[in-house]
Amino acid sequence: MNNEVAMRAKGICKGFDGKSVLEDLSVSVSHGELLAIIGPSGVGKTTLLRILNGLLEPDKGKVYFMKEPLGFEHDCDLEARRRMALLSQKPYPLMKNVWDNVAYPLRLRDQKEIDKKVSDALEHVSLLETADRKASTLSSGELQRMAFARATVFEPEILLLDEFTAHLDPYNISVLEDAVDWYLKEKNAAIVMVTHNLFQAERISSSTAFLFDGEIIERDRTEKIFNEPEDERTEAFVSGEMVF
Length: 244
Ligand SMILES: Nc1ncnc2c1ncn2[C@@H]1O[C@H](COP(=O)(O)OP(=O)(O)O)[C@@H](O)[C@H]1O
Ligand SMILES: [Mg+2]
Known about the structure:
The chain is α/β, with parallel strands linked by helices. It has a domain at 1-81 and 190-244: Rossmann fold (3-Layer(aba) Sandwich), CATH 3.40.50. Helix content is 35%, strand content 26%. The protein has helices spanning 45-52, 78-81, 98-108, 114-124, 140-152, 170-187, 198-204, 222-227, 232-238; strands at residues 5-16, 19-30, 34-38, 60-65, 68-69, 84-87, 158-162, 190-194, 207-212, 215-221. α3 (98-108) crosses α4 (114-124). The longest helix has 18 residues, at 170-187. It is globular and about 50 Å long. The N and C termini lie far apart (41 Å). The chain binds adenosine-5'-diphosphate and magnesium ion. The site of magnesium ion has 2 residues, from α1.
């Protein structure tokens, strides 16, 4: 099975209004890996995901998608961006029914076998029976499950998750976590998951990176980060002693 590096960020610096957020940060994720990014609020986790997704240009540094440098903004890399998906906390449904919402990225990409792909994607998040309903009639948990189906139906090689289960109830969290686990294994995807929920990182990620003070302080197998971290700041954060 291919477990090469799918995406790499190298020497990333990014600041806003003269205030530095990311400083010379490097990170990579491989096929078949679910990398959790943990760290205090405001440390730059969302900023990093937006840079990886090609939405935000770093001040310095480069992002490589399948070994090729990723273009930003004017030089926007549509081809690469069509092979990744970013799922954030708040879904943005189209004013259509559930089926059309999930079919939309397939139509955009001119993909074949739309019916089969949409029904498979809906089935994986237990939403097949809602296919004809307007997206606006779904509960917040169902809406996020629909957003997951829409983000994965076209089989992106890279999936970026930004606090994707924040504010959801345990049932919806578990349906979504199972769907992520299935997608990781079935498609050998490369997944980067930003979460402030340490239990979630421990439950489903294979590796974890602790982002603090603009850089990745420590990155290792998830089990190692949570049980035997090398850096005292990582230890303070995973044990809940870091005040922020
Ligand atoms: N577009 C922006 N303009 C100005 N400041 C921003 C912008 N985006 C993020 N920031 C600032 O950058 C810092 C990191 O934000 P963010 O990446 O959202 O953190 P996290 O996701 O770790 O909570 C915060 O101080 C935030 O206010
Ligand atoms: Mg964030």
